[in-house]
């Protein structure tokens, strides 16, 4: 998640809280824009992938429509709300869309009607753990696209694509100028274990060719696509050393994920 300022009259003004350097996000059509560990894409690409905004914490996450009304994201993207025994969260999340990068403005697209997160995420420390999943419901007609869940589990050496609205690097989390730009990147799975899909990628701004990508703050909850299907959800990461960033995505084929999704969705 990455912090931004609040929604005013239906418009989100993107500005990192507490930052004096949040002077705006460069326009998407500027040729010198460099997107870390990924390639900047138009909002119309990956239409199932949306930017989520939490007005309580002032943070953004990424999510994916997996049904006409349900967005799959990380549990920690709803951490501002309390959860009951059934997983229902007393919080609203919004879908927002950038309309003016230069002036840091976005429009409010829709507000959630229901959030359910895996209560085991809370029970296991409310941090990066294998239960880090939420399902967020939005009104009919909100989704511009839907992505299917992967029919098989990810495995080491699988090639994948990640999509998110996060920062353009992982080294300086106080630099929020790039937050809110949709980007894609490609990489290869290093390992699948302990409920996570794991890999490493570049941790500094690149030329934006999309290779050797990793994830950063704001990409939380975003999808990991294998053959166009959602196989994982961004949970967390850390330093990998030697200019590398380590990313950890929830494995949607783990027994823990299947139990949660199977309870709330019709899974084969």
TL;DR of this structure?
The chain is mainly β. The chain has helices at residues 119-123, 255-264, and strands spanning 2-3, 7-8, 11-13, 39-40, 49-54, 59-65, 70-73, 94-100, 105-111, 114-117, 134-137, 159-164, 183-188, 191-193, 196-202, 223-226, 229-241, 244-251.
Q: Span from first to last CA?
A: 31 Å
Taking Cα atoms only, what radius of gyration do you get, to the nearest Å?
17 Å
Strand content: 35-45%
Structural class: mainly beta
Give a structural overview.
The longest helix is centred in the last third of the chain and has 10 residues, at 255-264. The chain has 268 residues and is mainly beta. The strands form 2 sheets. Strands 1, 2, 3, 5, 6, 7, 8, 9, 10 and 11 form a 10-stranded antiparallel sheet that branches. It has an 8-stranded antiparallel sheet with strand order 4-13-12-16-17-18-15-14, with no helix packed on it. Helix content is 6%, strand content 35%. A hairpin with a 2-residue loop joins strand 17 and strand 18 (244-251). The chain is built from 2 helices and 18 strands.
């Amino acid at each position: 998640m990455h912090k931004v300022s609040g929604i005013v009259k239906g418009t989100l003004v993107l500005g990192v809280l507490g930052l004096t350097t949040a002077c705006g996000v460069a326009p998407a059509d500027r040729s010198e824009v460099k997107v870390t560990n990924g390639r900047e894409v138009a909002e119309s690409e990956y239409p199932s992938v949306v930017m989520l905004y939490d007005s309580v914490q002032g943070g953004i996450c990424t999510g994916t429509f997996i049904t006409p009304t349900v967005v799959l994201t990380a549990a920690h993207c709803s951490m501002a709300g309390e959860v009951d025994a059934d997983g229902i969260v007393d919080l609203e999340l919004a879908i927002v869309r950038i309309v003016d990068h230069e002036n840091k403005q976005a429009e409010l697209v829709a507000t959630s009607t229901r959030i359910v997160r895996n209560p085991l995420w809370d029970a296991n420390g409310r941090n990066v753990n294998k239960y880090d999943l939420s399902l967020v419901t939005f009104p009919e007609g909100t989704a511009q696209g839907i992505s299917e869940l992967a029919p098989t589990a990810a495995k080491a050496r699988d090639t994948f694509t990640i999509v998110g609205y996060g920062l353009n690097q992982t080294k300086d989390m106080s630099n929020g100028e790039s937050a809110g730009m949709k980007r894609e990147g490609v990489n290869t799975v290093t390992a699948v274990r302990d409920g996570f899909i794991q890999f490493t990628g570049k941790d500094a701004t690149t030329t934006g060719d999309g290779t050797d990508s990793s994830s950063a703050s704001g990409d939380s909850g975003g999808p990991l696509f294998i053959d166009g299907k959602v196989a994982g959800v961004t949970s967390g990461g850390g330093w990998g050393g030697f200019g590398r960033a380590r990313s950890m995505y929830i494995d949607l084929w783990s027994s823990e994920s299947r139990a949660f999704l199977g309870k709330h969705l019709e899974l084969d």
